[in-house]
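Task card 7
Instruction: Convert sequence to C-alpha coordinates.
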Amino acid sequence: MARIVVGMSGGVDSSVAAYLLKAQGHEVIGMFMKNWHDESVTISNDCPWLEDSTDALLVANKLNIPFHTIDFSKEYFERIVDYMFVEYQAGRTPNPDVLCNREIKFDLFLKKALELNADFVATGHYCQREEVIENGVTTYKLLAGADPNKDQSYFLCQISEEQLSKALFPIGHLLKPEVRKIAEEQNLITANKKDSQGLCFIGKVKLPEFLQQKLKPKKGKAYEIPDNLPQYSQQRETLEEICAPFLYSEKDGVVRGDHDGAHFFTIGQRKGIGIGGSPLPLFCIKTDVEKNIVYLGQGENHPGLFRKGLRINNGDIHWINASTEMKNGEQRVYQTRIRYRQELSPATLHKTENGLYLIFDEPQKAIAAGQFAAWYEGNVLIGSGIISE
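Output:
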Protein backbone atom coordinates (compact mmCIF):
# COMPACT_ATOMS: atom_id res chain seq x y z
CA MET A 1 0.00 0.00 0.00
CA ALA A 2 1.14 3.53 -0.72
CA ARG A 3 1.45 6.74 1.28
CA ILE A 4 -0.69 9.31 -0.57
CA VAL A 5 -1.28 13.02 0.06
CA VAL A 6 -4.67 14.11 -1.25
CA GLY A 7 -5.29 17.72 -2.23
CA MET A 8 -8.57 18.35 -0.41
CA SER A 9 -10.36 21.46 -1.66
CA GLY A 10 -13.47 21.18 0.47
CA GLY A 11 -15.51 19.93 -2.49
CA VAL A 12 -17.21 16.60 -3.12
CA ASP A 13 -14.72 15.39 -5.75
CA SER A 14 -11.60 15.54 -3.59
CA SER A 15 -13.58 14.24 -0.61
CA VAL A 16 -14.55 11.10 -2.50
CA ALA A 17 -11.01 10.77 -3.87
CA ALA A 18 -9.71 10.64 -0.29
CA TYR A 19 -12.42 8.16 0.75
CA LEU A 20 -11.70 5.77 -2.14
CA LEU A 21 -7.97 5.71 -1.43
CA LYS A 22 -8.57 5.09 2.27
CA ALA A 23 -11.02 2.28 1.41
CA GLN A 24 -8.36 0.70 -0.79
CA GLY A 25 -6.10 0.47 2.24
CA HIS A 26 -3.65 3.26 1.45
CA GLU A 27 -2.14 5.56 4.06
CA VAL A 28 -3.94 8.81 3.24
CA ILE A 29 -3.06 12.35 4.34
CA GLY A 30 -5.39 15.25 3.55
CA MET A 31 -3.91 18.62 2.67
CA PHE A 32 -5.74 21.88 1.97
CA MET A 33 -3.97 24.47 -0.16
CA LYS A 34 -4.60 28.07 0.81
CA ASN A 35 -3.81 30.05 -2.33
CA TRP A 36 -5.35 33.41 -1.58
CA HIS A 37 -5.71 35.89 1.28
CA ASP A 38 -4.68 39.22 -0.21
CA GLU A 39 -7.43 41.61 0.91
CA SER A 40 -6.08 44.36 -1.39
CA VAL A 41 -7.39 42.64 -4.50
CA THR A 42 -10.77 41.28 -3.56
CA ILE A 43 -14.21 42.86 -3.57
CA SER A 44 -16.44 40.15 -2.21
CA ASN A 45 -17.08 40.02 1.54
CA ASP A 46 -17.35 36.27 1.24
CA CYS A 47 -14.31 34.28 2.26
CA PRO A 48 -14.76 30.95 0.45
CA TRP A 49 -11.42 29.46 1.47
CA LEU A 50 -12.44 29.51 5.17
CA GLU A 51 -15.62 27.58 4.45
CA ASP A 52 -13.80 25.21 2.10
CA SER A 53 -10.99 24.50 4.55
CA THR A 54 -13.52 23.77 7.30
CA ASP A 55 -15.40 21.34 5.05
CA ALA A 56 -12.14 19.63 4.09
CA LEU A 57 -11.21 19.27 7.78
CA LEU A 58 -14.62 17.80 8.62
CA VAL A 59 -14.29 15.23 5.82
CA ALA A 60 -10.77 14.32 6.97
CA ASN A 61 -12.06 13.83 10.53
CA LYS A 62 -14.92 11.69 9.21
CA LEU A 63 -12.43 9.53 7.30
CA ASN A 64 -10.04 9.50 10.27
CA ILE A 65 -7.05 10.70 8.26
CA PRO A 66 -4.42 13.32 9.19
CA PHE A 67 -5.11 16.82 7.85
CA HIS A 68 -2.79 19.74 7.08
CA THR A 69 -3.27 23.24 5.68
CA ILE A 70 -0.46 24.73 3.61
CA ASP A 71 -0.22 28.36 2.55
CA PHE A 72 0.88 28.94 -1.05
CA SER A 73 -0.51 32.50 -1.24
CA LYS A 74 2.84 34.19 -1.88
CA GLU A 75 3.88 31.73 -4.56
CA TYR A 76 0.42 31.81 -6.12
CA PHE A 77 0.50 35.57 -6.44
CA GLU A 78 3.96 35.49 -8.01
CA ARG A 79 3.33 32.62 -10.43
CA ILE A 80 -0.34 33.01 -11.34
CA VAL A 81 -1.86 36.36 -10.38
CA ASP A 82 0.98 38.58 -11.57
CA TYR A 83 1.06 36.60 -14.82
CA MET A 84 -2.68 37.12 -15.29
CA PHE A 85 -2.46 40.88 -14.88
CA VAL A 86 0.48 41.13 -17.29
CA GLU A 87 -1.32 39.01 -19.88
CA TYR A 88 -4.61 40.88 -19.70
CA GLN A 89 -2.83 44.23 -19.83
CA ALA A 90 -1.16 43.03 -23.05
CA GLY A 91 -4.53 42.11 -24.54
CA ARG A 92 -4.09 38.35 -24.12
CA THR A 93 -6.35 35.75 -22.45
CA PRO A 94 -4.54 33.54 -19.90
CA ASN A 95 -6.04 30.45 -18.27
CA PRO A 96 -5.31 30.51 -14.52
CA ASP A 97 -6.67 27.00 -13.95
CA VAL A 98 -4.15 25.43 -16.35
CA LEU A 99 -1.36 27.43 -14.72
CA CYS A 100 -2.56 26.52 -11.23
CA ASN A 101 -2.19 22.82 -12.01
CA ARG A 102 1.23 23.25 -13.61
CA GLU A 103 2.71 25.67 -11.08
CA ILE A 104 0.95 24.89 -7.80
CA LYS A 105 -0.83 21.53 -7.56
CA PHE A 106 1.69 19.45 -9.48
CA ASP A 107 4.79 21.44 -8.59
CA LEU A 108 4.73 23.11 -5.16
CA PHE A 109 2.09 20.79 -3.71
CA LEU A 110 3.79 17.70 -5.15
CA LYS A 111 7.17 18.75 -3.73
CA LYS A 112 5.62 19.34 -0.31
CA ALA A 113 4.01 15.89 -0.42
CA LEU A 114 7.32 14.28 -1.30
CA GLU A 115 8.86 16.02 1.71
CA LEU A 116 6.30 14.11 3.76
CA ASN A 117 7.67 10.90 2.20
CA ALA A 118 4.55 10.43 0.09
CA ASP A 119 4.61 8.02 -2.82
CA PHE A 120 1.92 9.93 -4.71
CA VAL A 121 -0.32 12.97 -4.67
CA ALA A 122 -3.99 12.63 -5.56
CA THR A 123 -6.61 15.15 -6.65
CA GLY A 124 -10.30 15.12 -7.48
CA HIS A 125 -9.78 15.80 -11.18
CA TYR A 126 -11.96 14.04 -13.74
CA CYS A 127 -9.10 12.57 -15.75
CA GLN A 128 -7.17 9.31 -15.78
CA ARG A 129 -3.58 8.09 -15.79
CA GLU A 130 -2.36 5.10 -17.76
CA GLU A 131 0.88 3.29 -17.01
CA VAL A 132 2.37 1.45 -19.99
CA ILE A 133 5.46 -0.79 -19.82
CA GLU A 134 7.22 -1.55 -23.10
CA ASN A 135 10.65 -3.20 -23.32
CA GLY A 136 11.14 -2.56 -19.64
CA VAL A 137 10.46 1.17 -19.98
CA THR A 138 7.49 2.67 -18.12
CA THR A 139 5.52 5.44 -19.78
CA TYR A 140 2.76 7.48 -18.11
CA LYS A 141 -0.08 8.87 -20.21
CA LEU A 142 -2.79 11.39 -19.37
CA LEU A 143 -6.27 10.27 -20.41
CA ALA A 144 -9.59 12.06 -20.53
CA GLY A 145 -12.02 11.44 -17.67
CA ALA A 146 -14.73 8.83 -18.14
CA ASP A 147 -17.47 11.44 -17.66
CA PRO A 148 -17.67 13.38 -20.95
CA ASN A 149 -19.53 16.20 -19.20
CA LYS A 150 -16.82 16.65 -16.58
CA ASP A 151 -13.56 15.68 -18.33
CA GLN A 152 -10.88 17.98 -16.90
CA SER A 153 -7.84 16.67 -18.79
CA TYR A 154 -7.59 20.02 -20.61
CA PHE A 155 -6.76 21.73 -17.30
CA LEU A 156 -3.80 19.36 -16.87
CA CYS A 157 -2.48 19.84 -20.41
CA GLN A 158 0.74 21.47 -19.16
CA ILE A 159 1.91 18.90 -16.64
CA SER A 160 4.95 16.74 -17.40
CA GLU A 161 5.29 12.97 -17.52
CA GLU A 162 7.48 13.16 -14.41
CA GLN A 163 4.70 14.96 -12.52
CA LEU A 164 2.15 12.51 -13.91
CA SER A 165 4.18 9.56 -12.63
CA LYS A 166 3.55 10.80 -9.08
CA ALA A 167 -0.14 11.70 -9.57
CA LEU A 168 -3.32 9.71 -8.98
CA PHE A 169 -6.88 10.57 -10.02
CA PRO A 170 -9.13 8.27 -7.96
CA ILE A 171 -12.46 9.48 -9.42
CA GLY A 172 -11.40 9.76 -13.07
CA HIS A 173 -13.20 6.53 -14.00
CA LEU A 174 -16.48 7.67 -12.44
CA LEU A 175 -19.40 9.83 -13.52
CA LYS A 176 -20.27 12.86 -11.42
CA PRO A 177 -23.59 11.37 -10.18
CA GLU A 178 -21.67 8.29 -9.04
CA VAL A 179 -19.27 10.49 -7.08
CA ARG A 180 -22.14 12.28 -5.32
CA LYS A 181 -23.82 8.95 -4.57
CA ILE A 182 -20.65 7.65 -2.89
CA ALA A 183 -20.40 10.86 -0.84
CA GLU A 184 -24.05 10.51 0.24
CA GLU A 185 -23.61 6.86 1.19
CA GLN A 186 -20.60 7.80 3.35
CA ASN A 187 -22.43 10.78 4.89
CA LEU A 188 -19.75 13.21 3.79
CA ILE A 189 -20.66 16.83 4.48
CA THR A 190 -19.68 17.79 0.92
CA ALA A 191 -22.08 15.33 -0.75
CA ASN A 192 -24.50 17.98 -2.01
CA LYS A 193 -22.14 20.94 -2.08
CA LYS A 194 -22.30 22.89 -5.33
CA ASP A 195 -19.29 22.88 -7.63
CA SER A 196 -17.11 25.96 -7.23
CA GLN A 197 -17.54 28.80 -9.69
CA GLY A 198 -15.38 31.77 -10.62
CA LEU A 199 -11.61 32.01 -10.41
CA CYS A 200 -9.94 29.05 -8.77
CA PHE A 201 -8.35 31.17 -6.06
CA ILE A 202 -10.95 33.77 -5.10
CA GLY A 203 -14.14 31.80 -5.44
CA LYS A 204 -17.12 34.07 -5.82
CA VAL A 205 -15.35 37.14 -7.22
CA LYS A 206 -15.91 37.41 -10.97
CA LEU A 207 -13.07 38.07 -13.38
CA PRO A 208 -13.95 41.65 -14.48
CA GLU A 209 -14.26 42.73 -10.84
CA PHE A 210 -10.96 41.09 -10.01
CA LEU A 211 -9.10 42.67 -12.94
CA GLN A 212 -10.33 46.13 -11.98
CA GLN A 213 -8.35 45.88 -8.74
CA LYS A 214 -5.07 46.27 -10.61
CA LEU A 215 -5.95 47.29 -14.17
CA LYS A 216 -7.44 50.75 -14.09
CA PRO A 217 -10.44 51.73 -16.24
CA LYS A 218 -9.50 53.66 -19.37
CA LYS A 219 -12.23 55.11 -21.59
CA GLY A 220 -12.04 54.14 -25.23
CA LYS A 221 -14.14 53.68 -28.35
CA ALA A 222 -15.88 50.52 -29.54
CA TYR A 223 -16.19 50.08 -33.30
CA GLU A 224 -18.62 47.75 -35.05
CA ILE A 225 -17.04 45.93 -37.99
CA PRO A 226 -19.33 44.83 -40.88
CA ASP A 227 -19.37 41.20 -41.96
CA ASN A 228 -18.42 41.90 -45.58
CA LEU A 229 -14.86 43.22 -45.37
CA PRO A 230 -12.70 42.12 -48.35
CA GLN A 231 -10.21 40.39 -46.06
CA TYR A 232 -12.86 37.85 -45.03
CA SER A 233 -13.05 36.45 -48.57
CA GLN A 234 -9.36 36.72 -49.46
CA GLN A 235 -7.59 33.43 -50.16
CA ARG A 236 -4.95 32.49 -47.58
CA GLU A 237 -2.40 29.92 -48.68
CA THR A 238 0.76 29.83 -46.52
CA LEU A 239 0.75 28.60 -42.92
CA GLU A 240 1.54 32.12 -41.74
CA GLU A 241 -1.36 33.59 -43.71
CA ILE A 242 -3.85 30.95 -42.58
CA CYS A 243 -2.93 31.37 -38.92
CA ALA A 244 -2.72 35.17 -38.85
CA PRO A 245 -5.58 36.89 -37.01
CA PHE A 246 -7.71 39.46 -38.83
CA LEU A 247 -6.49 43.05 -38.42
CA TYR A 248 -8.73 46.12 -38.26
CA SER A 249 -8.47 49.89 -38.13
CA GLU A 250 -10.94 52.61 -37.21
CA LYS A 251 -11.83 53.22 -40.87
CA ASP A 252 -13.11 49.65 -41.19
CA GLY A 253 -16.11 50.26 -38.93
CA VAL A 254 -18.36 52.74 -37.16
CA VAL A 255 -18.28 53.92 -33.55
CA ARG A 256 -20.99 52.19 -31.52
CA GLY A 257 -20.13 53.40 -28.04
CA ASP A 258 -17.56 53.62 -25.28
CA HIS A 259 -15.85 51.05 -23.08
CA ASP A 260 -13.79 51.14 -19.88
CA GLY A 261 -10.60 49.56 -21.24
CA ALA A 262 -9.67 47.21 -24.07
CA HIS A 263 -7.70 45.07 -21.59
CA PHE A 264 -10.98 44.04 -19.92
CA PHE A 265 -12.26 42.34 -23.10
CA THR A 266 -11.57 38.92 -24.58
CA ILE A 267 -12.15 37.55 -28.08
CA GLY A 268 -15.63 36.06 -28.38
CA GLN A 269 -17.00 37.97 -25.38
CA ARG A 270 -20.70 38.81 -25.51
CA LYS A 271 -21.68 39.61 -21.93
CA GLY A 272 -20.63 42.92 -20.41
CA ILE A 273 -20.21 44.82 -23.67
CA GLY A 274 -22.97 47.22 -22.63
CA ILE A 275 -23.93 48.43 -26.11
CA GLY A 276 -27.42 47.73 -27.42
CA GLY A 277 -29.56 48.79 -30.33
CA SER A 278 -28.45 46.22 -32.90
CA PRO A 279 -30.67 43.48 -34.42
CA LEU A 280 -28.21 40.78 -33.27
CA PRO A 281 -25.99 40.62 -30.16
CA LEU A 282 -22.55 42.21 -30.40
CA PHE A 283 -19.41 40.11 -29.86
CA CYS A 284 -15.83 41.20 -29.30
CA ILE A 285 -13.83 40.14 -32.37
CA LYS A 286 -10.56 42.02 -31.69
CA THR A 287 -8.91 44.32 -29.17
CA ASP A 288 -6.13 46.86 -29.59
CA VAL A 289 -4.72 47.65 -26.16
CA GLU A 290 -2.19 50.11 -27.60
CA LYS A 291 -4.91 52.32 -29.08
CA ASN A 292 -7.45 51.18 -26.46
CA ILE A 293 -9.97 50.14 -29.11
CA VAL A 294 -12.48 47.30 -29.01
CA TYR A 295 -13.75 45.90 -32.32
CA LEU A 296 -17.22 44.33 -32.33
CA GLY A 297 -19.11 42.11 -34.76
CA GLN A 298 -22.84 41.56 -34.93
CA GLY A 299 -24.12 38.03 -34.44
CA GLU A 300 -22.48 34.77 -33.36
CA ASN A 301 -21.74 33.87 -36.99
CA HIS A 302 -19.80 37.04 -37.79
CA PRO A 303 -16.76 35.99 -39.90
CA GLY A 304 -14.44 37.96 -37.62
CA LEU A 305 -15.11 35.41 -34.87
CA PHE A 306 -13.70 32.47 -36.86
CA ARG A 307 -10.20 31.41 -37.82
CA LYS A 308 -8.87 28.40 -39.71
CA GLY A 309 -5.57 28.12 -37.86
CA LEU A 310 -3.29 29.25 -35.06
CA ARG A 311 0.43 29.29 -34.26
CA ILE A 312 2.36 28.33 -31.13
CA ASN A 313 5.88 29.63 -30.58
CA ASN A 314 8.62 27.01 -30.18
CA GLY A 315 9.22 27.94 -26.55
CA ASP A 316 5.53 27.48 -25.71
CA ILE A 317 5.07 23.95 -27.11
CA HIS A 318 4.63 21.24 -24.47
CA TRP A 319 4.64 17.46 -24.95
CA ILE A 320 3.57 15.30 -22.02
CA ASN A 321 5.67 12.41 -23.33
CA ALA A 322 8.97 13.30 -24.97
CA SER A 323 8.58 10.37 -27.37
CA THR A 324 5.65 12.12 -29.10
CA GLU A 325 7.52 15.36 -29.83
CA MET A 326 7.29 16.42 -33.47
CA LYS A 327 10.35 17.28 -35.58
CA ASN A 328 10.64 20.17 -38.02
CA GLY A 329 8.92 19.33 -41.29
CA GLU A 330 6.63 16.76 -39.69
CA GLN A 331 2.83 16.79 -39.94
CA ARG A 332 0.27 14.95 -37.82
CA VAL A 333 -3.51 14.94 -37.43
CA TYR A 334 -4.89 15.21 -33.90
CA GLN A 335 -8.20 16.02 -32.22
CA THR A 336 -7.88 19.47 -30.66
CA ARG A 337 -9.58 21.98 -28.41
CA ILE A 338 -8.75 25.56 -27.42
CA ARG A 339 -10.89 25.82 -24.29
CA TYR A 340 -12.35 23.65 -21.55
CA ARG A 341 -15.44 21.64 -22.56
CA GLN A 342 -15.13 22.60 -26.20
CA GLU A 343 -15.94 19.78 -28.58
CA LEU A 344 -12.81 18.19 -30.00
CA SER A 345 -12.10 19.20 -33.59
CA PRO A 346 -9.64 17.58 -36.03
CA ALA A 347 -6.60 19.64 -37.01
CA THR A 348 -3.37 19.05 -38.88
CA LEU A 349 -0.30 20.03 -36.88
CA HIS A 350 2.68 21.34 -38.88
CA LYS A 351 6.01 21.59 -37.02
CA THR A 352 8.39 24.13 -38.54
CA GLU A 353 11.46 26.05 -37.41
CA ASN A 354 9.11 28.98 -36.74
CA GLY A 355 6.86 27.05 -34.37
CA LEU A 356 3.85 24.75 -34.46
CA TYR A 357 0.91 25.54 -36.74
CA LEU A 358 -2.56 24.05 -36.15
CA ILE A 359 -4.76 24.05 -39.26
CA PHE A 360 -8.34 23.05 -38.46
CA ASP A 361 -10.64 21.08 -40.73
CA GLU A 362 -13.37 23.57 -39.79
CA PRO A 363 -12.85 27.21 -38.72
CA GLN A 364 -12.77 27.62 -34.96
CA LYS A 365 -14.59 30.30 -32.98
CA ALA A 366 -12.97 32.86 -30.68
CA ILE A 367 -9.30 31.88 -30.90
CA ALA A 368 -7.47 34.22 -28.51
CA ALA A 369 -3.79 34.81 -27.83
CA GLY A 370 -2.76 33.45 -24.44
CA GLN A 371 -5.20 30.56 -24.44
CA PHE A 372 -3.97 26.98 -24.39
CA ALA A 373 -4.56 24.72 -27.37
CA ALA A 374 -4.47 21.00 -26.51
CA TRP A 375 -4.34 18.00 -28.83
CA TYR A 376 -5.43 14.41 -28.30
CA GLU A 377 -5.00 11.00 -29.91
CA GLY A 378 -8.14 9.13 -29.00
CA ASN A 379 -8.63 9.86 -25.31
CA VAL A 380 -4.90 10.42 -24.68
CA LEU A 381 -3.78 14.03 -24.24
CA ILE A 382 -0.58 14.34 -26.27
CA GLY A 383 0.48 17.97 -25.85
CA SER A 384 -0.49 21.62 -25.62
CA GLY A 385 0.79 25.12 -26.20
CA ILE A 386 0.06 28.81 -25.73
CA ILE A 387 -1.61 30.47 -28.73
CA SER A 388 0.79 33.18 -29.90
CA GLU A 389 -1.63 35.69 -31.46
